[in-house]
Design a protein that fits this description.
By secondary structure, the chain is α+β, with helices and mostly antiparallel strands. Among the domains are: 75 residues, ACT domain (Alpha-Beta Plaits, 2-Layer Sandwich); 71 residues, ACT-like. Chain A, domain 2 (Alpha-Beta Plaits, 2-Layer Sandwich). The chain contains 10 helices and 20 strands. Strands 4-1-3-2-11-12-10-13 form an 8-stranded antiparallel sheet. Strands 5, 6, 7, 8 and 9 form a 5-stranded antiparallel sheet that branches. About 12% of the residues have low confidence. InterPro entries: Acetalactate_synth_ssu (IPR004789), Acetolactate_synth/TF_NikR_C (IPR027271), Acetolactate_synth_ssu_C (IPR019455), ACT-like_dom_sf (IPR045865), ACT_dom (IPR002912), AHAS_ACT (IPR039557), AHAS_small-like_ACT (IPR054480). Pfam families: ACT_AHAS_ss, ALS_ss_C. Keywords: Amino-acid biosynthesis, Branched-chain amino acid biosynthesis. Belongs to the acetolactate synthase small subunit family.
């Protein structure tokens, strides 16, 4: 499991995926939290220690990559989000599906006269167990984010090397910090993930530049809803590089990307959100359909669909503040997934507006780290458009 923090720019996702494609490495899971100026990749890949170390080394050479860290052996919180649609007609079948959902702490997000769509978060084992239990009812559609992770407790990602290197480059020679003393051969080598200084609660809302925002753009108002594409592809090495290459060659800056296994064996589903462009989105879909390993491309922008994201946020928290933060979390239906003496890590799912609202109420306490997945979407069989209903007051449509 690699954590990669980058300064975002057009085509960067394609370059990161290209490192794996050129070496024939298959990405098992990819979660990307994107903002206008930065992005956090969480990549799960298979291979020997030497292979993974070489991949990390090659990624670190890319322009605008701030840090790369292998957190496989670190103690960390790991979560992913899954939307699963199953056959559940009214009657005993739907009752049983609802009972199973309660056991796994899943939530129903859509219901029709034939199917139910459920949302569940957890680690890989929980996701696989939930899928297998529901398999007997018949899985109609499944979409998953990649895995995201934060280190447990006060430990944070090792980002100091990049900031020190950039500061050294920009400062005059007379102003640069002196070089550290040489390490003697008898001194034991420190682990690359050295423990960061513990942030003290109440430090205000001054954070390091490596804290990811809760949404792609929390300031600028988007005049038009971005386009959402669900792309089903064969699970082969290099397919993500091919798909993202289509977007990179046409100058699209991807706003959200989520990659996970689909309901069919050997297939994966990629959910991509791109800026709206009515004139060229049809041509983009045609180019995607021409790719060898692409099975199906579905545009969900104008159809009623469920849209969800997952966010992990680590907050500075003293013992006296813990009760207040837990109360705030319950309002947003967030769950506490890790506690230490000075920190609290929360897990929350929902739409971008919910993520931004939670971030605003947590900022006074001091946000230390944020990890986000991309957006996952699934068409509503009920046909209900929640955005349209949000503008309805009684029988009147609010314009």
């Amino acid at each position: 499991m690699l954590s990669v923090f980058v300064a975002d720019e057009s085509g960067l996702i394609n370059r990161v995926a290209g490192v794996f494609a050129r070496r024939g490495a298959n990405i098992e899971s990819l979660a990307v939290g994107l903002t206008v100026d930065k992005a956090l990749f969480t990549i799960v890949a298979t291979g020997t220690d030497a292979t993974v170390a070489n991949l990390a080394k090659q990624i670190a050479k890319l322009v605008n990559v701030r840090y790369v860290e292998d957190i496989t052996d670190e103690s960390h919180v790991e979560r992913e989000l899954m939307l699963i649609k199953v056959h559940a007609p009214p009657g005993p079948t739907r009752t049983e599906v609802t009972q199973i959902a309660d056991i796994f702490r899943a939530h129903a997000v859509d219901c029709s006269d034939r199917t139910m769509t459920l949302q569940v978060t957890g680690d890989v084992g929980k996701m696989e167990a939930f899928r297998r239990v529901l398999a007997k009812f018949g899985v109609v559609e499944l979409v998953r984010t990649g895995r995201i992770s934060l280190k447990r407790g006060d430990r944070m990602f090792d980002t100091g090397a990049w900031s020190q290197r950039q500061a050294g480059r920009s400062a005059p020679a007379c102003c640069r910090a002196p070089a550290p003393p040489a390490r003697s051969s008898s001194t034991p080598r420190a682990h690359p993930s050295v423990q960061q200084p513990t942030a003290q609660p109440g430090d205000g809302d001054v954070y390091a530049s490596n804290v990811l925002d809760a949404a792609y753009d929390t300031v600028a108002a988007v005049a038009k809803e971005p386009d959402v594409l669900a792309i089903e592809v064969q699970d082969v090495p290099g397919v993500l590089n091919q798909v993202t290459g289509v977007f990179a060659r046409r100058g699209y800056n991807v706003q959200s990307l989520a990659v996970g296994n689909s309901e069919r064996e050997g297939m994966s589903r990629i959910t991509i959100v791109v800026p709206a462009s009515t004139s060229s989105i049809a041509n983009l879909i045609k180019q995607l359909n021409k790719l060898v390993y692409v099975e199906n491309v579905e545009e969900l922008t104008l159809v009623p669909h469920v849209s969800r994201e997952l966010m992990l946020v680590k907050v500075a928290c003293s013992a006296s503040q813990r009760g207040e933060l837990v109360s705030l979390a319950s309002i947003f239906r967030a769950q506490v997934c890790d506690v230490s003496v000075n920190t609290l890590t929360l897990e929350v799912t929902g739409r971008e507006e919910k993520m931004v609202a939670l971030k605003e109420v947590l900022e006074p306490h001091g946000i230390l780290e944020v990890a986000r997945t991309g957006r996952v979407c699934m068409q509503r069989d009920s046909g209900l458009d929640s955005k349209f209903l949000g503008r309805v007051a009684g029988s009147r449509v609010m314009l």
